[in-house]
Amino acid sequence: MRNLTLITCVLILTGNGLFAQAENIVGFWLTADRDSQIEIYRTSGGKFHGKLVWLDEPLEDDGSVKRDNNNPDRSLRNRRLMGLEILKDFIYDSSEREWTEGTIYDPSNGRTYDCYMWLDGNNTLKLKGFVLGMRFLGRETEWTREKELRK
Q: What is the DSSP secondary structure assignment for residue 46, as one 8-state letter?
C-alpha cells in the first residue's frame, strides 16, 4: 500500500512537471523581423495556438486596416490581420521537448506550413515550417519572448 502511494505521488509530480514544461511557450513573442507580436495560448482542448496581437504598421497606406490579402481562399481575404490565428493545433512532445503536429500560416504569402517549435533557453522560441511532411524541407525562424502586449 505504501509503495502504491509513493508511485501515485511520483506520477502526479511528474505529470505536473510535464504540464509546466508544456506551458513554457505561453505568452507574447516578437517575431524575427520585429514587426509583429504573437500571443501563444493553450486552448480548452489542450492544444497550443497563436494569434497576431500587435503590428508595427497595422494600417495600409490608405489608412484602412491590414487584411489577409494574400490568402488563397478569396472569401478569407477580407479578414483583419490583427487577431488572426497563425499558429494552430500544437501539442507538447515531452520526449523531444518540442511542440509538434501544428501549422503556421504566413500572411505575407498566404501559405500554411506544417510546423514544430522548441525553446532555446527561456526567451527564444525557434520555429520551423516545412512542406510535404519532410522536416528538412523548410525554413527556420526565431522569436523573442516579451513580458506583455505591445501598445
A: S
Mean pLDDT of the chain: 89
Q: How many structural domains compose the chain?
A: 1
Overall pTM > 0.90:
no
In the predicted model, what is the mean pLDDT of residues 17-27?
78
Residue whose C-alpha cell is 496581437: 53
Q: How far, in Å, are 27, 72, 111 from residue 20 at the CA level?
A: 13, 37, 32
99, β-bridge pairs: 92, 117
The answer to the question of residue 40 being in a domain is yes
CATH code for position 33: 2.40.128.520
Measured distance CA(130)–CA(81) in Å, rounded: 22
Are 89 and 117 in contact, with CB atoms under 8 Å apart? no
Backbone angles phi, psi at 22, to 5 degrees: -60, -35
Q: Which of 140, 132, 149 is nearest to 83 (CA)?
A: 149
Q: Within a domain: residue 67?
A: yes
